TrEMBL record:
<keyword id="KW-0815">Transposition</keyword>
<feature type="region of interest" description="Disordered">
    <location>
        <begin position="402"/>
        <end position="423"/>
    </location>
</feature>
<feature type="domain" description="Transposase putative helix-turn-helix">
    <location>
        <begin position="1"/>
        <end position="48"/>
    </location>
</feature>
<dbReference type="InterPro" id="IPR051399">
    <property type="entry name" value="RNA-guided_DNA_endo/Transpos"/>
</dbReference>
<dbReference type="Pfam" id="PF01385">
    <property type="entry name" value="OrfB_IS605"/>
</dbReference>
<keyword id="KW-0233">DNA recombination</keyword>
<dbReference type="GO" id="GO:0046872">
    <property type="term" value="F:metal ion binding"/>
</dbReference>
<dbReference type="Pfam" id="PF12323">
    <property type="entry name" value="HTH_OrfB_IS605"/>
</dbReference>
<dbReference type="InterPro" id="IPR010095">
    <property type="entry name" value="Cas12f1-like_TNB"/>
</dbReference>
<dbReference type="GO" id="GO:0003677">
    <property type="term" value="F:DNA binding"/>
</dbReference>
<keyword id="KW-0238">DNA-binding</keyword>
<feature type="domain" description="Probable transposase IS891/IS1136/IS1341">
    <location>
        <begin position="178"/>
        <end position="293"/>
    </location>
</feature>
<dbReference type="InterPro" id="IPR021027">
    <property type="entry name" value="Transposase_put_HTH"/>
</dbReference>
<protein>
    <submittedName>
        <fullName>Transposase</fullName>
    </submittedName>
</protein>
<feature type="domain" description="Cas12f1-like TNB">
    <location>
        <begin position="320"/>
        <end position="388"/>
    </location>
</feature>
<dbReference type="GO" id="GO:0006310">
    <property type="term" value="P:DNA recombination"/>
</dbReference>
<dbReference type="InterPro" id="IPR001959">
    <property type="entry name" value="Transposase"/>
</dbReference>
Length: 423
């Protein structure tokens, strides 16, 4: 099987190289904005949005015009790739519109492409395709085209596979380079035979059906006061002045630290769980719906708005969706599986197979679970993880045995020789 993997490193650029990369990013940003303005005009007039192949034909004309002759100083491959990105963005938007009309989606996920601003670090990026043709790596240096020459980077790990392209981005005052590689691997077989259920939460980040618990990092909460203090300082400065820009950079560094701490924690947790379990059963949580505002509108005022706002902040601070994404691709690399099940009533259903009684009275408080029918007691989060695992096992048994009764499914053990991990 072929897998695509990226390796990201920090670049150590000279002042001259910094200015040159900024110039290349500026030409890419200009081409995106200019092509987007033409596309928007055609959209308003009812014409068809041109494809990226058609947009490529605009570049030679722009380079010959006096007002846009500076585009000749940019990287031709990077400019074409930026137009490819614009074409892909329009394609995703139109696909969502088609699904919306067909009733397959409730709202558009990918909005219409927007203009890129110069003062945003996320819009300072270039992608160089055909890496083997235009670039090469020696030790801790990479040779880049467009008069950039040899650039040092902090090689923290070896690069495996064939490098297809590289992307240079700027974040929090630093330049980073990401190498996208293609690797050929044999179909992996997970070394473990264990199955585990996961219960996500706020007070406990994740609880396993084994009883193992991961404490939440709460990276935003830890830096919240400092961030608020720095933002108040920013509000007292003249907008776009030099002092305002310095303060803005300080705030960006705090945001970057919060994101880096969260990402590191999620990678460590997902690596450990993925390494030790072949099948991971998780809750199919709709994070966007769970973290919606409770303010309401002028006619229908919301209730407990302050409490819901704090809960939303805590939910988003955990990074549940990113954790699930990491589990899915890491399990795919190892030959395992990630299965999402409906989380309804998992926190108040008795996990005993002979009982399975569901009632809100089973959970008298946040931590305790006590079945009012059979008297089973355990931690509420562990009970949630056990129920998540039981939902999958029941569905797997029924699908393996056909559309029969529950009695027929209990007579067989279609578990693919996997070991259930339970408390």
């Amino acid at each position: 099987m072929k897998i695509i993997k990226a390796y990201k490193y920090r670049l150590d650029v000279t002042p001259e190289q910094h200015e040159r990369i900024m110039q290349l990013c500026g030409t890419c940003r200009f081409v995106w904005n200019k092509a987007l303005s033409i596309c928007n005009e055609k959209w308003k007039s009812g014409e068809k949005i041109p494809s990226s192949y058609t947009m490529h034909k605009w570049l030679p004309t722009w380079k010959k015009e006096e007002e846009t002759s500076f585009l000749a100083q940019g990287n031709a491959v990077a400019l074409q790739q930026k137009l490819n990105d614009l074409g892909a963005a329009w394609g995703k938007h139109f696909d969502d519109l088609a699904k919306l009309k067909a009733g397959k989606m409730k709202e558009v996920k990918f909005e219409k492409p927007c203009f890129k601003q110069r003062n945003k670090d996320s819009h300072n990026s270039i992608r160089i395709m055909q890496f083997s043709k235009y670039c090469r790596i020696e030790n801790r240096r990479v040779k880049l085209p467009s008069k950039l020459g040899w650039v040092r980077f902090r090689k923290s790990q070896e690069i495996c596979g064939e490098i297809k392209n590289c992307t240079i981005t700027r974040k929090s005052g630093h330049w980073f380079i990401s190498f996208q590689t293609e690797q050929e691997r044999l179909d992996p077989v997970h070394p473990s035979e264990k199955i585990v259920g996961l219960d996500m939460g706020v007070k406990k980040f994740v609880t396993l059906s084994t009883g193992e618990k991961y404490k939440p990092l709460n990276s935003y909460r830890k830096h919240e006061k400092k961030l608020a203090s720095e933002q108040r300082k920013l509000s007292r400065k003249v907008k776009f002045s030099e002092n305002w820009k310095k303060q803005k950079r300080r705030i960006n560094r705090i945001h970057s630290k919060i994101a880096n701490c969260r990402s590191d924690y999620l990678h460590r947790a997902s690596y450990e769980i993925s390494k030790n379990h072949a099948i991971i059963v998780i809750e199919d949580l709709k994070v966007s719906n769970m973290s919606k505002s409770a303010k309401g509108n002028a006619e229908n005022q919301g209730k407990n708005v302050k409490a819901k706002s704090g809960l939303n902040k805590s939910i988003l601070d955990q990074g549940w969706y990113e954790f699930r994404r990491q589990l899915e691709y890491k399990q795919a690399w190892r030959g395992g599986e990630v299965i999402a099940v409906n989380p309804a009533y998992t926190s108040r259903t008795c996990p005993e197979e002979s009982c399975r009684y569901e009632s809100k009275e089973n959970r008298p408080n946040q931590e305790t679970f006590r079945c009012v029918k059979c008297g089973y007691e355990n931690n509420a989060d562990i009970v949630g993880a056990l129920n998540v695992l039981s939902i999958w096992e029941l569905g797997h048994s029924l699908s393996a045995c056909g559309e029969g009764s529950l009695e027929s499914s209990e007579k067989q053990e279609p578990r693919r020789n996997r070991k259930r991990v339970a408390a």
